[in-house]
């Protein structure tokens, strides 16, 4: 179903009683319209799986940051420092303020928005607002930014599907050959999907570009020069969509975020630029500009954030800086981040896409095309051209480490931003939603510290006995192959930690029956050369489900666990204090 803005207005109009066409709407009218908009968003698939009960109770209100947001929420005394005033940081700040937290935002630039930046361009009274960073709301079915724009009465300018193509000599491409090659391109992508299903795990190491080129030659598609030029345009457009060269995109994972599209709908611009959203989000939020953070110290007593010669102290800190800042180690973490998170930061890449904006005093490209406001053209440079433009090597997208990147550290240090959002990477709404997600995590972490915590009661010298592990794994929460998992039954959070067990060794041995008692193992396996080995590791629910999706049997899963998830297997006696605490927490849940 295609999104129809006029139809949507009519639906809301009918429901709220013809208030949309009135210039002077009452507060009651606005509240009713807002609730209707929220219900439409929910019915179209607005993602609520990451929201906690208190957030859902808060709902969507007519005035951002209004008093009614706090009506159903018990205020807390927690304090949070947010590093970065981009969409993720601003969304988290507003949500935490509504929860009753004390919040301060530190921003290195002299403006909010981060990589969403609207710049005025032009001369001689001919100016245009250009979004130099994030610019398009990619589908407004249940997109939170689309909902926000409507609440703020900001018009949405639809990007039309009509996109005329021109040959190198300037002549327009004929409709017949255009439709033919578009069909060929879509069929090639369908074949890629079929092929990777057949190949299973082997598709991980094959590039999308090589598969497309092979299929193109195999089916003798695009035989003429014109047809090949058109097919190359579709390939280039695919590189633009992925911000990377096809030769560097994995045939297995290049479209991993497609299942999470927010119901589709029109892609839209905001006339005047996205600064209008930023202005609303930053209103009333305490932001310190020009505060470049140099170090973050975190521990049981709270956090200390150093920006220049100033030190900010709080209970928790949310780091929403871009992935590139983390890669450069511009911020020193004390203590150092866990190896798993450092490995995720190192291995996760980002694409390259350049934008060239040009403002003209008059239209020379035809008045029948899609234009509004001041006359402006934007050229997008992707693929090999973008690499030459930047004179840097391309970065490879490794989406399987996103779940590691977004984990909190010690319930004191949290991470947000579009790079931490597996479902909606490289989007403005992905950054926005990651801020809401981490606000939820901070709320739960604070609530957990204020309640009785069984972890605090475990002496440092305690090591879990094998019998405790045996009892835990008698009723695992998740099983596939030789992998068994147990988790805390009190939470379904994808970031909640659990224990995994795997049995290695001869399947014919009596010892392969996983968790038998110590006495049974000694009696049945005495003198046997084919004993099995019981190993463990700690991982999140999200990582367990990610491992479950790996094809090719237990050997491939084990390889994925060690190489991609960067987890270490250990015996029961090597689990350590954190593992002991986790086991006790799960056992007493």
From TrEMBL:
Write the lineage as a comma-separated list.
Answer: Eukaryota, Viridiplantae, Streptophyta, Embryophyta, Tracheophyta
Q: Which residues cross the membrane?
A: none
Q: What is this protein called?
A: LSD1-like2
Task: Using the record's annotation, list all stretches that form the Amine oxidase domain.
Answer: 87-369, 411-442
Q: Which GO terms describe its molecular function?
A: oxidoreductase activity
Top-level taxon in the UniProt lineage: Eukaryota
UniProt xrefs under Gene3D superfamilies:
FAD/NAD(P)-binding domain
Q: Which organism is it from?
A: Actinidia rufa
Q: Which family does it belong to?
A: Belongs to the flavin monoamine oxidase family.
Instruction: Cite the InterPro entries for this sequence.
Output: Amino_oxidase (IPR002937), FAD/NAD-bd_sf (IPR036188), Flavin_monoamine_oxidase (IPR050281)
């Amino acid at each position: 179903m295609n999104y129809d803005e006029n139809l949507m207005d009519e639906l809301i109009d009918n429901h709220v009683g013809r208030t949309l066409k009135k210039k002077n709407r009452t507060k009651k009218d606005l509240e009713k319209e807002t609730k209707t908009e929220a219900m439409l968003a929910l019915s179209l698939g607005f993602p609520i799986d990451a929201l906690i009960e208190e957030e859902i109770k808060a709902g969507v209100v007519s005035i951002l940051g209004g008093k009614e947001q706090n009506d159903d929420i018990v205020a807390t005394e927690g304090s949070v420092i947010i590093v970065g005033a981009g969409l993720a940081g601003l969304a988290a700040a507003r949500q935490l303020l509504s929860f009753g937290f004390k919040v301060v935002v530190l921003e290195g630039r002299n403006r909010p928005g981060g990589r969403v930046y609207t710049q005025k361009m032009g001369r001689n009274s001919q100016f245009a607002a250009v979004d130099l960073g994030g610019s398009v709301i990619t589908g407004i079915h249940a997109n939170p930014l689309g909902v926000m724009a409507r609440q703020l009465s900001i018009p949405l300018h639809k990007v039309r599907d009509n996109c005329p193509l021109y040959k190198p000599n300037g002549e327009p491409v004929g409709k017949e050959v255009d439709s033919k090659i578009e069909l060929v391109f879509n069929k090639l992508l369908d074949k890629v999907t079929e092929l990777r299903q057949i190949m299973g795990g082997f598709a991980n190491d094959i590039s999308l570009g090589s598969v497309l080129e092979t299929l193109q030659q195999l089916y003798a598609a695009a035989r003429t020069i014109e047809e090949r030029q058109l097919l190359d345009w579709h390939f280039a457009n695919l590189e633009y969509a992925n911000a990377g060269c096809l030769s560097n995109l994995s045939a297995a994972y290049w479209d991993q975020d497609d299942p999470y599209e927010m119901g589709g709908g029109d892609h839209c611009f905001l006339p005047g630029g996205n600064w209008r959203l930023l202005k609303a989000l930053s209103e009333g939020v305490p932001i310190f500009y020009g505060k470049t953070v140099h170090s973050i110290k975190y521990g049981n007593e709270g956090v200390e954030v150093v920006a220049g010669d100033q030190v900010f102290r709080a209970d928790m800190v949310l780091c929403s800086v871009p992935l590139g800042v983390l890669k450069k180690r511009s911020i020193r973490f004390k203590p150092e981040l866990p190896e798993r998170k450092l490995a995720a930061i190192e291995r996760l890449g980002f694409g390259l896409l350049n934008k060239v904006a040009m403002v003209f005093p008059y239209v020379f490209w035809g008045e029948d095309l899609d234009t509004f406001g001041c006359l402006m053209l934007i050229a997008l440079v992707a693929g090999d051209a973008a690499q030459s433009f930047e004179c840097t090597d391309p970065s490879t997208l490794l989406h399987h480490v996103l779940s590691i990147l977004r984990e909190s550290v010690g319930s004191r240090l949290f991470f947000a931003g579009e790079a931490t959002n597996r479902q909606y990477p490289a989007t403005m709404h992905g950054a926005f939603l990651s801020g809401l997600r981490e606000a939820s995590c901070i709320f739960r972490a604070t609530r957990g510290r204020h309640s009785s915590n069984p972890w605090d009661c475990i002496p440092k010298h305690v090591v879990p006995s094998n019998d405790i592990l045996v009892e835990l794994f008698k009723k695992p929460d998740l099983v596939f192959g030789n992998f068994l998992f147990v988790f805390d039954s009190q939470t379904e959070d994808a970031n909640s930690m659990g224990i995994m067990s795997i049995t290695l060794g001869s399947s014919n041995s009596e010892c392969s029956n996983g968790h038998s008692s110590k006495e049974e193992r000694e009696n049945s396996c005495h003198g046997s050369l084919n004993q099995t080995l019981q190993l463990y590791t700690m991982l999140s629910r999200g990582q367990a489900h990610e491992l479950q999706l790996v094809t090719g049997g237990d050997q491939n899963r084990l390889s994925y666990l060690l190489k991609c998830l960067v987890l270490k297997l250990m015996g029961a006696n090597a689990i350590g204090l954190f593992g002991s605490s986790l086991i006790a927490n799960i056992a007493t849940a």
